[in-house]
Amino acid sequence: MNTEAKPEKKNFFEALAQKFKLTKSKVLTSLLASFAFSFFIFIYSTLSVYFSNAQELPFSLGDFLPYYLIAFLAVFLFVFVVLLLTNKLLHRIGFTLTAGLTICAYVQSFITTITFSGMPGDGMAEPPSKQKMILNLGIWLIALAVFATLAFFRKKAEFIRTVLSFVLIAVTVMQIFTLVPSAFEYMAFSKTENNHTYILTTENQLDLSSDENIVVLVLDSFDREYFLEYIEANPAAMEDFDGFTYYDDNIAFYPRTYPATASMLSGKLNDFSLNRGQFFAQAYGSSPLLQDLKENDYNVNLYLPNYYGYDNANVFFGYADNVSQANGFKVTEKSMLIKRMFFLSSYFWMPEFKKSQKVSSSYFQETGTYISDKPMYTMEPGSDPDFYTRLTTEGLSANEDGKVFTFLQLRGCHPPFAMNENCQQVSTGSVTSLQQTTGAFKIIKEYIDQMKALGIYKNSTIIITGDHAGPHAWTNDLTEYKQAMNTALLVKPKGADDTPFKTSKAPVSQENFLAEIVKSANLKTEHEYGKAYSDISEDTNITRNHYFITFTGSKRKDELVTYEITGDGTDINNWKIVDRKEVGSIYD
After folding, report:
1. What are the start-end ranges of the H helices in 214-256?
2. In terms of residue numbers, what domain contains 533?
3. Could you give the C-alpha distances from 76 to 97, 180, 361, in angstroms and in order?
């Protein structure tokens, strides 16, 4: 009789543990490294940047967090299993490298965060120099090489494992303690009664008055060079613009939509002592034009780009008639939102050469739409073609109820060019500046032709201009202008319709914009507006100002550069820098 004992049958987990030499230490270090890495990448980085910028982002936490939790779990399990099932040497290498990546990314994030806050695409971040990118990458590679080398010190393996484990725990605990107060601040902000978003809608966009109208058509980046290129290619283009004067030497206050549009409508200059939202509130709230339009019984309709033209349309209460409360934000492009949130969070922990500096507040507007009874007015690449379609199919209407002021800012000449000469949206970069400008003027000509057909052209003030000039004179935010920056300007005062199109060399600027409206429309006012465009003769010798904003290297502080232009503003030799002032981050 065979009395030899049968070997004890092992269960699956025991067999697995024996095969892969699983120990308590191996399991715990695998858990720690995989959790710390995944938590930092998908939870801490994403939530910290969201909480910090929640006031600038239209979507809610629930729009993206579930997907990041899934990504966190997936990566956590994958890294955990890989570390768990490798042999002793590979496990040490995997553990030290995972720990090293987490620590390096956390240190990079910490340094970036204390250097500046906000979103890089809002002008918060300077493009890193090649030297900086090389130095930063070198530090990363050296650090990771050191961590990988630690895996080969077998005699010190336990000590190294203990130290790295302690560091990972400390880093993770610090992240949690940082997130908690940020989360409470976010919840407090979300619950505030005045935390309502108001938007400018497309309401009344095609409605004008049969009595009197003031129509301001703003082409973004409407540069003098673009206009001259257009009329050279289309010599007969201005024949239908009877009553108009083209001012060849016009200077805008600023080179960007923010704060140019707000300054146009308010006459207020921005010294950047206030943040963006505060400046909008102050500028629009004290705008003499908006006040006088209402006191002169005008219906006011403003079509401005969100973020660059206003933050919250509640600043237009009592003035604009196309303000509507948004009942939340509906994300329609989930995958785009997930990717862009990753781009935003990764900016803080990625090596310099991999950072995406395009992520801005407006970058997220494309992921969805505000929920409102009326569509929100937007200025995306397809907005101008869409407006042209509405204009040609629905048409302008002239109502008898009161007078109308319309300020319509179109994408116009703004690069990247994505509209052809027939007002059709095309792929970005497939058309030239001339083609897009031609398309923009097709919209304007259609608008004017319909005003003539309605019999309201003569009794309307019409101004066609840009909020600022185009990018031809400067290549980046670090260098001053290489040629003059003139913004195209065409003006038809009320009552003019039978005089031929003409050109004026008068030295004018946006300082004359409000005065021209008041003079042409004969508004009753107690405010002092100064001289109108038509008050400036061609032989006038005046000094005009233009304010350029440049980034100042590693300080990450924006600088307000004041130009004085004396004489002919189309000659760069007459542009002199007279002041430089550090103003922090202009998009704050």
Report:
1. 224-233
2. 209-326+378-487+500-584
3. 15, 22, 30
